[in-house]
UniProtKB/TrEMBL annotation:
Lineage per the UniProt record: Bacteria, Bacillati, Actinomycetota, Actinomycetes, Kitasatosporales
Coiled-coil spans in chain: none
SMART domains named among the record's database cross-references: Flavin_Reduct (SM00903)
Domain of life per record: Bacteria
UniProt keyword Disulfide bond present: no
PANTHER family cross-referenced by the UniProt entry: FLAVIN REDUCTASE, FMN REDUCTASE (NADH) RUTF
Positions with biased composition (Basic and acidic residues): 1-10
Organism: Streptomyces polychromogenes
Xref: InterPro entries: Flavin_Rdtase-like_dom, NADH-dep_flavin_reductase, Split_barrel_FMN-bd
Protein name per the record: Flavin reductase family protein
Chain ranges passing through the membrane: none
Amino acid sequence: MSVRQREENRGSAGSGRPGPGDRPGPAAPAAPFTEAMARLVSGVAVVSARRAADGGPCGLLVSSVSSYSVSPPSVLLALARGSRTYRAMDATVGTPFGVHLLGSADEALAKVFAGRSEDKFADVPWTWDGDTPRIAGVPVYLRCRAAALFPHGDHTVLVGEVDDCALADGEPLVYYRRRLDWRLA
């Protein structure tokens, strides 16, 4: 019997769906899972927003961002709920935010937004794009509005509809095995 046949025979009436008595297996241990995900090559982005409390800019580095939909143009990203920036932006449906896809020349910028500085924008060239802090000189900038938020585990999955997109030339900065300085050849 193939794996697929075994899976289809489990659950409700051969539907392939788990039945009421089926329980998911144990969760993967955190350390091996974290190591496995460190081996997934991903781009890095700075997510920026206006702080809810005082209106200043806030931002954080993320490696979990992807295209979600073309119609409407949307991105999907995961934000750690324990981060100061996530709490500062106090995102709800409709909250504007920016996604800045970093280039190979942006390693220092990535380290600033991965850090714990109280004012990450202090030495960074940026301007307001409406209600969204926009960092200058990055290869890709997306101005978004939160369309949906889904808390799961220690993160919130955020779907953002893209209002505007700016593109420039540049090779991407990627994250691999906990390093921000690995570049595609």
